[in-house]
Amino acid sequence: MLEILRKIVQDVAAAPNLDAALETTVASVQQAMGSAVCTVYLLESRPTRLGFRATRGLNQALVGKVALGIGEGLVGHVAERAEPVNVEQVVGHPKNRYIPGIGEEAYSSFLGVPIIHQGNTVGVLVVQQQESRRFDESEEALLITLSAQLAGVIAHAEAMGRITGPKVRRGSSLFRGTGGAPGIALGTAIVLYPEVDLAQVPYRQVRNTQREIERFERAVASATEEIQEVASGLVDQIHRETLGIFEAYLQMLDPQAIPYQVIARIKEGQWAQGALKEVIALHSAQFEKMDDPYLRERGDDVRELGNRLLVHIERRNKRRQHFPRDTILIGDDLGVADIGKVPRDRLQGLVSGRGSVNSHLAILAEAMGIPTVMGVKDLPMAMIDGGHVIVDGLEGAIITSPNRSQRDTYARRKLEEQTLTDELEHLATAECTTPDGHRTKLWVNTGLLGDATRSIDRGAEGVGLYRTEIHFMSSDTFPTEEEQRVIYRAHLEAFSPLPVTMRTLDIGGDKSLPYFPIEEDNPFLGWRGLRVSLDHPEIFIAQIRAMMRASEGLEARLRIMLPMVSSVAQVDAAKRLIDQCYQEVIEEGASIRMPEVGVMIEVPAAVYQAVAILERVDFLSVGSNDLVQYMLAVDRNNPQVAGLFQEFHPAVLQALSQIARSTKHMNKDIAVCGEMAGHPEAALLLMAMGYQMLSMNMTNLLLVKKALSTISFETAKKILDRVLVLDTAEAVKATVDRLFRREGLGSLIRGPAGRQRERSKR
User: Of 245, 615, 674, 715, which one is least surrounded by beta carbons within 10 A?
Assistant: First the structure.
């Protein structure tokens, strides 16, 4: 069965359009099941009609010309029930209905299964036999499995604009992704198709390895020049520190980085393209397995660089493309170099099929003030190329072929967004204080040096989470103590005199190192975070010493934070090593202050030991992403259950409230450094609970400051008391939504419904 599935999926993926894919499907299924007939019906543009789209065994001349209604005939009955229908003898069945001329009269048995994508029935897959018999359970299971595969094919075909025939939809359509850079843009869609695809490069051995090395080195030189050219063209448009994004690419092109590994494989006999593919695949895979969205996006950076290098290896001529004055640049995987292809005065918006707010593209777009949407799935790029589109970078929405009413609405929205942006900019230099005087410190989560200026410009008062593992993942070996010191000092200097909270090495789970692989059946419940560091004290000690030495002579306040703590014994062990490092550095002649030491609360066990943990350290910081994941047993990156990842779940709120209540008397800092902190509505509840510091993605900082500066602390406490007795996440969210709309903060509510209601209220 697995071999049958694999072959069908491969054959279908190679089809040039949906009709060809359906033809391949029915032919393969007919052969695999030994059936006389295999047919596919798909939902037409009219959502109540099932079109006859492909067949083996029935009249091919009627394909695309006839249809059945939902509930009409056995096929319509399958669609209506959304479950299999297995009939031994169709003659006499109350639901049976023959379509004249289709040729079903000769067949007695019928098995139909629905084709379901994301909970919606999109078609029906049917097999028929001449003899009167009931299809057995194994046959039914196979057909159900095949229909599930076909559902994905149909969705992909729609996304790639590969649909032909009656399924093509007209009129405006809404597609959702993730807001990458705020703002609204109305313009013309210009699709940027990939010049190469590294994933399609085959394996090939060569004898003349020196020639391949020379080809690759020329490609590295050309890619380096290209990146430098794009960066120089943006010097007058963005902060110097933001240009550090390009420096990150140049570092990967250093002779001792990716080029060194590629050349090593070429020397083993692999051609340049294949060697590059292997190295890029190795590095990008390490990042893409990670749960942390910030770190996961670094995999896209590596893959983008790989495709840039492949273009230069193959010496592809750059295609000239016309860009209108209202260009909305769209691509399946846009990179930072693509921005440089469009004159700035013509580039109004960006849409990428991959990536998130943490991608370098989004970071650069925000710095340039370009509305951007990332991670848009199922966008029919070929169909919208050259058409009118609307980009909503705050809501993460794309509207294709908008009607006049939509264009007028979003033109008005654009003015409103500009007003909000201007208002938020005024808040950048102000403290985050409620109208009745309650103070909350807003910090940022970071990992790249280029984040510093953008964070400070938005009024960041410190760094609540600095991800040190990024530098470990970009290296071929564990970085030395001195290498780490140089990196840490650069960050401390960039944020000085603000406090910087450096999380110790947090690997395991979804984060592994290419030179230190961790293979486990259940990695999220395995060897990760502080557990790894305590089992390898030599790694932990080198990192702590590097942090301490990096702080010497600086005003910046170094804070060290321990991840994935589940017992006080782990805290005690780590503290002993930290104290040891401090004494060593002092004895070596360094003049430093003892850093503050804190713990991340990420697992339920730590929630119930918060007091005991805080007795041993200087501060606590809740990592809400992992805490929600572990409390609800939900992997938010799994689309099947992502909807169950609820930050407003009553159990989550109760846990967060308990931490704050139980530690209130200890007069020590407690913070939240997960995504909840950057959610304006969640931030209000966290403030009311007693969290003094909220650390978030820099893009959300001003939104949170706006919310907390508008609503009084007393009001926040009242709304907290009200939601803590509710028993569903939906009820909690609705309650806070009402408060935000009442306070004139409807524009900060996540999701389109909140915005729409706010506008109607006016």
Answer: 615
